[in-house]
Amino acid sequence: MAAGPAYIYRYDGSYPGFLCCVAECFRDKRLPQGVQLLDEPQATLFPIKEVETRPGLAQRVERSLPERISPLAHSMVRRGFLTCMEEKELRLLRFILLGYKHGAKVTNMSTHDDVHALDAALLYLKNEAHYHVEFLRFAECGGFLASTITPNNLVLPLIAPHFCERLNTEDFVIYEKTHQMGFVHQAGGRREFFQAQGWDPPKPTEAEERFRALWKKFYDTVAVEGRVNPKLRRGNMPMRYWVNMTEFQGRL
Amino acid sequence: MDLFEKLEILTDAAKYDVACTSSGVDRPGAPGALGSAVKAGICHSFAADGRCISLLKVLMSNDCAYDCTYCVNRRSQECRRTSFTPEELCTLTMQFYRRNYIEGLFLSSAVVRNPDYTCELMLQALRMLRERERFWGYVHVKAIPGASPRLTQQLGMLADRMSVNIELPSQKSLSLLAPQKSKEKILTPMRQIRDGIAENAKDIVKYKAAPRFVPAGQSTQMIIGATPEPDRQVLMLAEGLYKKFSLKRVFFSAYMPVVSDRALPARDTPPPLLREHRLYQADWLLRFYGFQAGEILDDAHPDFDPLLDPKCSWAVRHMEHFPVEVNRAPYEMLLRVPGIGVKSARRIRSARRQATLDFDGLKKLGVVLKRARYFITCKGKSISPLPMDDPAVIAGAIRERGFAQMGKGGQSWQGRELPALEQLSLFAPSREDGVKRLTGQI
């Protein structure tokens, strides 16, 4: 690409914001040195460019992905933005530019460094989302169900539909501590994501304590003593997820 | 008796049943009803034994009228007896389900009074769950052998999966250990469920809203190691069940010596976990790899090799088929190469349409060559580090290394403890050293 100063982009951390970075990079005709969030401390000597989020521009870039690359690549970028991949924005940016160059073929170029990294990150995202469908635990606290999770990837948008469908008769809140966001569902009505700097569920009710104790009792009893196998259990259920699970509360 | 104690007793009595999966049916949620079902099944926790907890696995009652020798709930055993009321069972299921603890209910029961009465009890609970509570999640229910077909049919309309335990692998063992059960009694409900499913499939073609009968199919389980049948007989039986009864799964359960009896292995016998593992490996070969039971184990080899998995032992016995050329071998043959599974075989099949494969290409596809290298060639070349003319050499090279450690962990094979392998040392203590140590000389 043409010469010129290599900038560090700073954007607001939103998905449309990232798409504007893509447009900015296209206009600069040069890859940025790095992409940072606006609220990150500035610790660099490279020239800085603050990228403004403009919804119209973001939409144009968004539309170009399925048209100029492929619908699969579009979905990979969208999901890729939820992952905890290192230098996520820069890698996605390079993936998109690669896609503009090669078209639909890009999703199969799995030996390419950036495509391979994105594939691995997407696999991690998918697996972690599935772990949360399995191991997420709700607690009844006075009229609604509440759950706190601490995933590495932003799995909430991927798991919310599953719980909306399954628990359509319930009111529930899932709070995602890592990214400080949550999801609210009301039976037969409101469903929305929210941002919150920390959220503590109300105290569990007495009935809730009883069912927790019953579940712990069941969990302990159902294991067959003659076959105890801690390694197998850890393999199937990584210990990272135990902290939020009812059956291990007060035992870790 | 309070709910805690009941749950403990009835879970404890049900835990040896292994057919506890939540798979086989895709059912999207329905507005106003709690729950949904996913075809692949969802595990919600893993118990200390490392096995999946997917369903609330309990007995309706452990107050059994039968006296099967191997069973913890037999009539002559002294233990606490209790039953759930339908109300209690509904509360537990609904409350556990909405907290995302479980995927549904697994309901089995001891025979209370007689099979029909037991069925009525279970029906009552399931009706309450499905109709009053509008539970839309997964339900697995045991058919009770000897119950009237009408009741089994009704249970099937409320459940997703049904199973009848075949218990022991032969009629002889059954009459020895479970005198009140017989092969005929067990196979009758199995046949009924099979025919019910087939008929229901026709109804659904005719009109979409036809009520579903056992949509997730039926399964069964048998106990391994309580009786002396060879592996070959067990595997033949499993194959027969898949073919004749179109079962979804046959589960094997290593016998845990929980009761003392002259007809049973001693209380201190370790459970034959490795044998169970081998049976599952062979079961996968039957279901996904196109093997026949008669190929995996033949008359000359009626039992599994503790050191080699069934696929490897078949390959070593049939070296005349190997090595196969990866670029030309039919898919069915690729599946038979040790180390190449369904995923790898599919990848090879689609990749070789684009380009000729070499060993580097195979590695990129994710094919593990540790064992496969002895059995394949790429473009006519082999990378086997060993001469290929002696199957015994190959067998030695691909045998399971971790096995020495497993021997120390109290593994048993066919009920016998396997000797742990010893580490050779120049300075290993001799017999005399032992004597000297006792007398205080060292």
| Biggest sheet character of chain B | 6 strands, parallel
What Rg of chain A, in angstroms, do the CA atoms define?
Answer: 22 Å
Strand order of the largest sheet of chain A: 4-5-6-7-8
Domain count of chain A, please report it.
2
Multimerization status: heterodimer
The most extensive interface, with participating residues per chain, is: A-B, 45 and 43 residues
How is this structure best summarized?
The complex is a heterodimer of chains A (252) and B (442). Chain A is of the alpha/beta class.
How would the blueprint of this fold be written?
The complex is a heterodimer of chains A (252) and B (442).
Chain A lengths: L7 E4 L3 H14 L5 E4 L10 E3 L4 H15 L1 H10 L7 H15 L10 H23 L3 E2 L4 E5 L6 H11 L5 E5 L4 E5 L5 E5 L10 H17 L7 H7 L16
Parallel strand pairs in A: 1-2, 1-3, 5-6
Antiparallel strand pairs in A: 4-5, 6-7, 7-8
Helix pairs in contact in A: 1-2, 2-3, 4-5, 5-6
Chain B lengths: L2 H12 L30 E2 L5 E2 L2 E4 L26 H13 L5 E5 L6 H18 L5 E5 L6 H10 L2 E3 L7 H7 L5 H24 L11 E7 L6 H15 L3 E6 L18 H16 L4 H4 L13 H8 L6 E2 L5 H4 L7 H10 L7 H7 L3 H4 L3 E2 L13 H8 L4 H6 L3 E2 L2 E2 L13 H9 L3
Parallel strand pairs in B: 3-4, 4-5, 5-6, 6-7, 7-8, 9-10
Antiparallel strand pairs in B: 1-2, 11-12
Helix pairs in contact in B: 2-3, 3-4, 4-6, 7-8, 10-15
Your description of this structure?
The complex is a heterodimer of chains A (252) and B (442). Chain A is 44% helix and 13% strand. The model of chain A has no long low-confidence stretch (mean pLDDT 91). By secondary structure, chain B is an alpha/beta fold. Chain B folds into 2 domains: 294 residues, Aldolase class I (TIM Barrel), CATH 3.20.20.70; 90 residues, no CATH class. Chain B is 40% helix and 10% strand. In chain B, the strands form 4 sheets. In chain B, strands 3-4-5-6-7-8 form a 6-stranded parallel beta sheet. Chain B has a two-stranded antiparallel sheet with strand order 1-2. A two-stranded parallel ribbon of chain B has the order 9-10. The relative contact order of chain B is 0.08. The mean pLDDT of chain B is 87. Chains A and B meet through α5, β4, α6, α7 and α8 of A and α1, β1, β2 and α2 of B.
